[in-house]
Amino acid sequence: MYKLACAALIAVAASGFASARHAHAQGGTMAQPAAAEIARELAPSGTLRAALNFGNPVLAQRDPATKEPRGVTVDLARELARRLNVALEFVPFDAAGKVFEALKTNSWDVAFLAIEPVRAAEIAFTPPYVIIEGVYLVPKDSKLRTIEEVDHEGVRIGVNKGSAYDLFLTRTLKHAQLQRGENGIELFRKERLDAAAGVKQPLAEYATSHPDVQIMDGRFMEIRQAMGTPRVRLQGREAVPQYLRAFVEEMKASGFVAQALARSNQPDAEVAPPE
Fold first, then answer.
1. CA distance 82 to 78
2. What angle do CA 160, 65, 252 make, to 5 degrees?
């Protein structure tokens, strides 16, 4: 009897130690909530609806052969659904602004967007998992040579409406004028604008096949891509954001994000540092 009692006490102590160690590793005072609890709150229908922004090819693309979605956000969504033991449904969008607008219709459970104050008021974001650059595309004969020179009176910049760089430049530009549309590059061409703002990788790819334009040296912003879930559904509960934060940190630390970027041929994207 004595031996059984001792064994029970040891088991309880070991369990408590493991829980404390896990909580410490997550930077908190409590262990992570169970996956079943998170699944009930995050995907109450039994299906996790993950918004994919195909307008940002760093994050999501369609396989040229099968047309199936692929990319770092696709892999993250699949791994999250696997851990929660729920079905997965991809909800496709062609622009980040449209993902944000879809909050009004409760169209998704998790999304992958750049962290921005306007969005953060309505979306609970994780730490970033990928860092990408916001840059300017300009004509080859442009008189604009530096990032600072762009913010002058009379300078017109094409942007994708509602994008992270639209929101950032709206806050930070003091003199230049933004022209918003479905496609900032097309607007730049059609309206003969002075510059187009956007994510570095697709703009660089465009410049490669259009020798009359070039990428300006430097970046005007750092775009911090993160996972998020609608705040309106949380009602003050922190279990879901806590779980997602820990999930993203683990995916970065384990090499999962780096491997997903490599598989989708995005070598220039940078895995975000731990937070």
1. 6
2. 60
Residues linked to residue 167 through DSSP beta bridges, in sequence order? none
Torsion of CA 176, 96, 127, 198, to 10 degrees: -40
| Cβ-based neighbour number of residue 66 at 10 Å | 8
For the chain, domain boundaries: 8-131+225-271, 133-221
The Cα–Cα gap between 99 and 117 comes to 16
**What pTM did the predictor assign?**
0.83
If you search the block for the tokens 């490669």, which residue do you land on? 208
Q: Helix axis angle, 256-263 relative to 239-253, nearest 10°? A: 70
Whether 213 and 148 have beta carbons less than 8 Å apart is answered as no
Residue 110 near residue 48 (C-beta atoms within 8 A): yes
Bridge partner list, 270? 131
Look up the CATH architecture of domain 133-221. 3-Layer(aba) Sandwich (3.40)
Per-residue pLDDT of the chain (275 residues; tens, 9 = 90+): 333 333 433 343 333 333 333 433 444 434 456 889 999 999 999 999 999 999 999 999 999 999 999 999 999 999 999 999 999 999 999 999 999 999 999 999 999 999 999 999 999 999 999 999 999 999 999 999 999 999 999 999 999 999 999 999 999 999 999 999 999 999 999 999 999 999 999 999 999 999 999 999 999 999 999 999 999 988 878 899 999 999 999 999 999 999 999 999 998 899 999 99
- Paired tokens of 174: 């003091």
Class of domain 8-131+225-271: alpha beta
